[in-house]
Amino acid sequence: MTEELEVKELDNVVVRFSGDSGDGMQLAGNIFSTVSATIGNGISTFPDYPADIRAPQGSLTGVSGFQVHIGGGKVYTPGDKCDVLVAMNAAALKTQYKFAKPQATIIIDTDSFGQKDLEKAQFKTEDYLAEMNIDADRVVACPITKMVKDCLADSGMDNKSVLKCRNMFALGLVCWLFNRDISLVENFLRDKFAKKPVIAENNIKVVNAGFDYGHNVHASVPATYRIESKDKVKGRYMDITGNKATAYGLIAAAEKAGMRLFLGSYPITPATDILHELAKHKSCGVITVQCEDEISGCASAVGASFAGALAATSTSGPGVCLKSEAMNLAIIDELPLVIIDVQRGGPSTGLPTKSEQTDLLQALYGRNGESPMPVIAATSPTNCFDAVYSAAKIAVEHTTPVILLTDAFVANGSAAWKLPEINELPEIKPHYATPDMKDGYTPYKRDAETLARYWAVPGQEGFGHILGGLEKDGDTGAISTDPENHDKMCRIRAEKVARIPVPDVEVHGDKDDAELLIVGFGGTYGHLYSAMEEMRKAGNKVALAHFSYINPLPKNTAAVLTKYKKVVVAEQNLGQFAGYLRMKIDGFVPYQFNQVKGQPFVVEELVEEFTKIIKS
């Protein structure tokens, strides 16, 4: 075919790459996301992969997916369902078609739909499209495996290595469909495989083969598509995951505070990438220690904090359980420490690669004794930078450990991020002991306004002191079992956290006359905001109050939550935030929307449920 296809301009589109967990779907999706972010599109991604280290090839449980929502403007969610589904084998089509819109274009590798492939995917007939009620006119059926083998026949690569390049053919085909500049993909691959240029060039050859296939046969589609960026803000952008943004936020905070950054950690899904990323930045003065277990990871960070570092430890829910004793040591010693909890599905090992918000009450109360700790929740992949920066600022200025809650959805997901200017970030001033305290310093001397103790770093002459897990006298710093002193110290530690200034919670939408106020926290922001906007378009009066600061709560919390006749708290647990708010605000009795599926909210479901509440 030589005639030109129509090029349609779209506001947004959702693409889902799916295949075996060894088919490179995460890489293909990441490259397409990065290229889209590079040209100024808004993006939101959702990697969805199995917990199995390597499930049997072609099995239903071994399918790995990567969904990306691309828009001309700001994008808030990865999308409920996709406009384009890439299914590299029969199992991928069987399990992932439910995520496709009825009119979606489906790209399949016909070489992976043989009789054995169909049996593994539990198809009952060889006519798999009819069996799933899929219109064949919407399917781009391409012999991807054969074409990749032909493309690399003279490369000298073994068969296993050749098959690993199939994802690049699918990527090239998708790039053609959306008029992406293929040179951007080539640059990405040359950077990624800089030490293996032969592999880079072979992958580039396959990407171009996929692009050319689409161009030459027009791939059975009526049009190709272009998504133009709108409201471009000048600056440098990158596609960034929440875990990488968290790592960068810690580096920036240490730089701003004039401190060395120390991370004591133990690998755990889905938080490990924070350790991996920080380990790359020794040139920035970053110290990383991969410890033998979760307890030592946190304990080493407590020691580093005592020695004067900006200390952090990263983990997920099961690791927080193990770290709790060391975290409590930081509380009674009033040492700065940032604890990053990338929440995943539980209890126990639970759903290691899936996302929940079920660690909230553990973060607030999951330690022995009266052990108050500030808790902050990141709302998006890019917000992870700001949230961890704020956590570090609170930690060193108020001499307290701080918990940052992210989750697998925002940690592994990505978005287009405008790189900040370091001189525009808020100032961070560690609450150090002052020179005039020399020779008269005691460890619990406090600022009268904030109640933060003055922090003396070991090695300063005239500032010698001892900290430990036993209660201390508030005046002398000596070990004390006096009941009045213990009561006083518990109240001071709680009041110190309560006095930390945090921004007011902002109300979006119809804040003056909403029929329903939606309330959420953390990583559900994009879905709740999108649901609010959809309902407003339908003529409903709806507002959203989304919380980043959990402890202490913003000062306007009670005023906001008691202003509206109907309030619904939506969260990915069985009601932890709703219960916490009821405890903090007299007479507050909200509606609740709770799911614990290990998957992000579906905007369509939210709209349906919230509309029922308005009409009830």
UniProtKB/TrEMBL annotation:
- List the transmembrane segments: none
According to the entry, every stretch annotated as the Pyruvate:ferredoxin oxidoreductase core domain falls at 514-585
Does Oxidoreductase show up as a keyword for this record? yes
Which Pfam family, giving just one, matches this sequence?
PFOR_II
Question: Domain Pyruvate/ketoisovalerate oxidoreductase catalytic, which positions?
Answer: 22-212
Family matches, as SUPFAM superfamilies:
Pyruvate-ferredoxin oxidoreductase, PFOR, domain III, Thiamin diphosphate-binding fold (THDP-binding), TK C-terminal domain-like
Domain Pyruvate flavodoxin/ferredoxin oxidoreductase pyrimidine binding span(s) in chain numbering: 262-430
Q: Point out the signal peptide segment.
A: none
Entry keyword Lyase? no
- What's in the keyword line of the UniProt record? Oxidoreductase
Taxonomically, which superkingdom? Bacteria
Give the protein's recorded name.
2-oxoacid:acceptor oxidoreductase subunit alpha
* Naturally occurring in which organism (per UniProt): Xylanibacter caecicola
Name the lineage. Answer: Bacteria, Pseudomonadati, Bacteroidota, Bacteroidia, Bacteroidales
